[in-house]
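Q: Convert this sequence to structure tokens.
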Amino acid sequence: MTPAPIKEMEKIARRIRGRVVELSHLTKTQHLGSSLSCVDILTACYWSVLRIDHQAPGDPCRDRFILSKGHAAPALYVALAYKSFFPEELLTTFAQDGSHFAEHPCPKGIPGVEAATGSLGHGLSLGIGMALAGRILRHTYRVFALLSDGECNEGSVWEAAMMAPAHGLDNIAVIVDYNRWQATGRSEEVLALKPLREKWAAFGWDAHEIDGHDLSALCALLHTVPDGSGKPRAIIAKTVKGKGVSFMEDDNNWHYRVPTEEEVFAAKRELGLVES
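A:
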């Protein structure tokens, strides 16, 4: 895949954010702030890094992307629709009875969705299994798993974190969407996450901490997986919950709040998607 220019990716990210806000209003669904915080990470992955063809989503040699923070499913669905994995009009079935587009990703039925997630703490283990299988089969695909910072409370995450270095799996990267909020409070107030980069490094990962909204920095680190070091890569992506909409940014009420029609318009105006 030819990587998209940064300016183009910035426009794509704004479009994704606008559509995610619309979907929350249309379907009266939650987790809007958590979806907005990871949009730039998804944009970097799907428009610059991942080697995957929307016309062959089951290709055994494709790169794998696992949305372990499954509550951000709307952002993933919109990204996949914009990459033509399925028709955009199907997004309107999100969270409706009988739809494949559940509020957390389902195991089958949506091209491009690699795993059922939502019960936090399992996506990295799945990814490590895929990465190990790839090495055994002599495939060169890579695996990228996106976790939330609150998800790092789960013991299963740290079991997986010990597994990858033990097997020298450098074909996997974990990206932690570090927006500093959990459902009911600041992440550092719930459990002692800090110093998160150092924790991953101590577990044997090539660990980095960057601005999770810096597309250039994200692409630079994601493109160099694997780097020949024999170490898996961890990227602590410092983000803002509700990113892109000023009245949602760093306001944890938007973990559960649903925007009104007027708030949708205001959000899209800020994102440059509609005129005043």
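The longest strand covers residues 172-178.
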